[in-house]
Amino acid sequence: MANEHPALATLILAAGKGTRMKSARPKVLHELCGRSLFSYPLEAARSLDPKRLLAVVGHGAEAVRERFAEQAEFVLQAEQRGTGHAVLECRSALQDFRGDVLILYGDTPLLTGETLERMRAHKRASGADLIMLSAEVDVPGIVIRDEGGSVARIVEATDAAPDELGIAERNTGVYLLDGYLLWKLLAQVDDDNAQGELYLTDIVEVAVGEGRRVDALKLDESTEALGVNTRRELAEASQRMRDRILNRLMDGGVTIVDPGTTFVDADVEIGADSVIEPGCVISGPTRIGEGVQLRPHCTIESSEIGDHVAIGPSAHIRPGCVIGEGSRIGNFVEVKNSVIGPGVKADHLSYIGDADVGAGASFGCGSIVVNYDGISKHRTRVGERAFVGCNVNLIAPLEIEADAFVAAGSTITKDVAEQALAVARARQRNIEGWVAKRNQKRD
């Protein structure tokens, strides 16, 4: 149909070393809100359902391939000779492709799929040959428009006239154009510059020189174009991404008491009417139900929290936990790799590790599930409605059956039967007059 978009191939350029990050790790594998930088443009590209999705890799290529195996076709740029050269490395892979090519970058995590879809819609509606994305950002390429509003040229800030330096609109380097035209334009770009590199930005000048229509689509939110080249820019991008995440959650009915001190990763989901109090950190693919109360300074990692659970303050839910509906995990309680049934109470100063806890069970203050013997981890099973008293040590592997009681101060090394009371502590002995005798010895 005439109104349909052409087939689309997306290229994500991710071959750079990222020298200014000062890191042995490839730049695109640095994390931002729980995901690698590269995952964000990859997700934005996938939202357009491209026919082909290629990633150009170079420095740390094997690590990037391993991390994103089967999520893209990888093209190696063995020698980094500029962005134009990186795109040319894809020509062989796309020799039979007919359609548009969208060029993105692996270090621009804030660019959204909605913006890229807007580029496609503008190209189809306008009939322009090349669509470039522009923004009011601090990058060298100044966008000079003609009287009709199309792009006349791109001027580097170092070569700009005084009146041109005042133009805020800059070239982001994100392009959309027909694949045949892309290769034709790149064939006319040379490396006659101080770096001896092929610059992708030069295709704009070539296209305008041929009388092609080049349109610059200006970003509504300029921060989408923020590239990450340094640790400072990574922190800035992280802050902006966190703002997006928290706004999404608040728009969905979650109360964030203090967004400035709340850190939530990109893959976290939280149900309506949940309340997140200051200082909380929620990371990984965590799922939190409705009506949950996270009190101040809690850390939740890659876990599943049921509806109407209360956690904290200062609790730590480590990866792999499932916390059942209506449970209470109190202050300074740590839970690790455990399944906690509905209505369980562990209100303060406890550690529950590698345990399966039945509904309605209760842990007293200072109770510890001792899951590690110095060599291996072992599991503990606590049955429904079991009561574990204060300052109890449960030495795994162990089973406390349903409705059993464990007396405070006990160290339990054997299974406890259903409805039994387990007491494992030394008999108390009171020595009359002991203090006076001690004091006499001191005198």
Highlighted features:
ten-stranded parallel β-sheet, alpha/beta, 443 residues, UDP N-Acetylglucosamine Acyltransferase, domain 1, 2 domains, elongated, Spore Coat Polysaccharide Biosynthesis Protein SpsA, Chain A, 9 helices
Q: What is the secondary structure topology, with strand pairs?
A:
Layout: E1 8-14, E2 31-32, E3 35-36, H1 39-46, E4 52-57, H2 61-67, E5 73-76, H3 83-88, E6 100-105, H4 113-126, E7 130-135, E8 141-145, E9 151-156, H5 162-165, E10 170-178, H6 179-186, H7 202-209, E11 214-218, H8 231-251, E12 255-256, E13 263-264, E14 269-270, E15 275-276, E16 281-283, E17 287-288, E18 293-294, E19 299-301, E20 304-305, E21 310-311, E22 316-317, E23 322-323, E24 328-331, E25 334-336, E26 339-340, E27 345-348, E28 351-353, E29 355-357, E30 362-363, E31 368-370, E32 380-382, E33 387-388, E34 393-395, E35 398-400, E36 405-406, E37 411-412, E38 421-422, H9 434-442
Parallel strand pairs: 1-4, 1-6, 4-5, 7-11, 12-15, 13-16, 14-17, 15-18, 16-19, 17-20, 18-21, 19-22, 20-23, 21-24, 22-25, 23-26, 24-27, 25-28, 26-29, 27-30, 29-32, 30-33, 31-34, 32-35, 33-36, 34-37, 36-38
Antiparallel strand pairs: 2-3, 6-10, 7-10, 8-9
CATH architecture of the largest domain: Alpha-Beta Complex
Instruction: Tally the beta strands.
Output: 38
The CATH class of the largest domain is: Alpha Beta
Q: Show unreliable segments.
A: none
SSE class = alpha/beta
Report strand %: 25-35%
Oligomer: single chain
Estimated helix fraction? 10-25%
Q: If strands are numbered along the chain, what order do they take across the biggest sheet?
A: 12-15-18-21-24-27-30-33-36-38
Most strands sheet: 10 strands, parallel
Q: Report the mean per-residue pLDDT as an integer.
A: 94
Radius of gyration: 30 Å
State the CATH superfamily name of the largest domain.
Spore Coat Polysaccharide Biosynthesis Protein SpsA, Chain A
